[in-house]
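Running this now, will post back.
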Amino acid sequence: MVKEYNVAILGATGAVGRRMIEQLEQSTIPVKSLKLLASSRSAGTVLKFKDQDLTVEETTPGSFDGVDLVLSSAGGAVSKKFLPEAVKRGAVCVDNTSAFRMEPDVPLVVPEVNPEALKKHHGIIANPNCSTIQMVMALEPVRRKFGLKQIIVSTYQAASGAGQAAIDELKKESQDYLDGKDMQADAHILPTKGDKKHYPLAFNLLPQIDVLEDSGYSHEEWKMIHETKKIMLNDMNAKDIKVTATCVRVPVSISHGESVYFTVEDETATAQDIKDAVAAFPGNVLEDDIKHQIYPQSINATGKRETFVGRIRPDYENKGAFNMWIVADNLLKGAAWNTVENAEYLVKMNLL
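Update: finished.
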């Protein structure tokens, strides 16, 4: 008899939470019951799961009584408050916030890349940052076959990385611009809620995601550097792969792009070798046909679970160095799908 699970989604009414419901519906997880949880403001909202109308409940510690699996995307402070309560009550939690990512005893997992890390969980599994997920998806097959020495990434991140409100703000600013109005009046969120100044994103580029730190890096850049090392090398401060990042918000609604320059240990590797490795890796789609102008684009990746990779080419000035372009839906593979996929692996590996 197949074991079924009582599941809760924390942050069910948000942009990622709603997609978690959809991804859970399409997943292989045998769901016995589903509880939708959010703040008091969203309690009472009715959402559908498998043609059932489910009413969103206000989250309390008691909400997790009898729950086997929690999928969470309600903000770091909410996760820190409630997920330990869920674990106390016997649940396993997959969290899509930054709350636990750098905790040494919390696995940081992209299922195709480091599923074995799930075995070390103590009740909480962390979902990596969206921009990190798609980069390690593209580079892990390269690392396995040819070794990786260095990664230099520049991101082109969509407004949705800052939530539905940021998408709405981008749309309003775009209309203001087209109407000849002042966009600044509608800039309340970006580049980040946590900083003093806010700038329009429409028809603009913002080289700041998350707060700027004394080091000169933004916290998003810090996350990409250290999360990549933790996922690939199981050590956030590992020196075996050098990583640096520049993270930029661009006026796109959904699906991040990334330009990645990397060097491999095996200098006999060719661009075709890299393409073959990327294409063979589960979850990746190679879109790389320059004769027909085929390459990954945000509008084509939106709504899809896969990571799309193209423009793979050598650096002719430096042996063993290559460039690639990566695009993925930051709300699906970068968030909701990776969370649900982690839960699928927990079920397959009998870790729930």
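The mean pLDDT is 97. More later if anyone needs it.
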